[in-house]
Amino acid sequence: MPKRIIITGGSGKAGQFIIAHLLAQNYDILNLDLNPLPAPLSNKVHTLKVDLTDNGQVHGALHSHFHLTEPFREPLRQVPDAVIHLAGYARNMIVPDNETFRGNTLSTYNVIEAACRMGVPKIITASSLCAYGVAFAEGDVDYPSFPVDEEVDTNPMDVYGLTKVIGERTARSFARRFGTDIYAMRLGAIVAPEELRSRFEEYMHSPEQYKVIRMPEILG
């Protein structure tokens, strides 16, 4: 029997590539997302529309069938082998800050809590390099040493980075409480193959646009 994985936010940019990779490894997948998967992935993976900020919906979704068949051929209440949590607002200024905070922190809490209480043995959640507080800082940021690594303090100013730090602490707390293997991956920018040329040509030809400059330098 193939291993069963539930992924949240699988319809997003990173999620689609992860789903394609897992399908190639013969995993059985259920996608929890408010948006549908595009074809051809939608022909192989069922998407259950779930509001992850609703704790009851999350618990119900984790106990769901993976496939819509008549009749259902798989036994209900199977514990997934893993949960991958990618869903959430992907940056600042998609919605107002308070909604970014509510949506990201509450969905992460609900998914981790439901998976731990269900007995899921492994959880992977998407954190971000924004936890270090560089990308959306208000002005320049100084660090005691470079390159920045995992030992550097996480001290973001922006709400998106803050939600990722809270998500990491949530994961740590539940891992200690339940003994579950939980991994928070601090992801960098998610760039699709077709975006590589345009994105990195910008970086190479106009690096000054991406330099963080102190306000006194701007004001003269």
TrEMBL record:
N-terminal signal peptide: none
Domain of life: Eukaryota
Entries under Pfam families matching the protein: Epimerase
PANTHER family from the UniProt entry: NUCLEOSIDE-DIPHOSPHATE-SUGAR EPIMERASE (PTHR43103), PUTATIVE-RELATED (PTHR43103:SF6)
Protein name per the record: Uncharacterized protein
Organism of this sequence: Aspergillus kawachii (White koji mold)
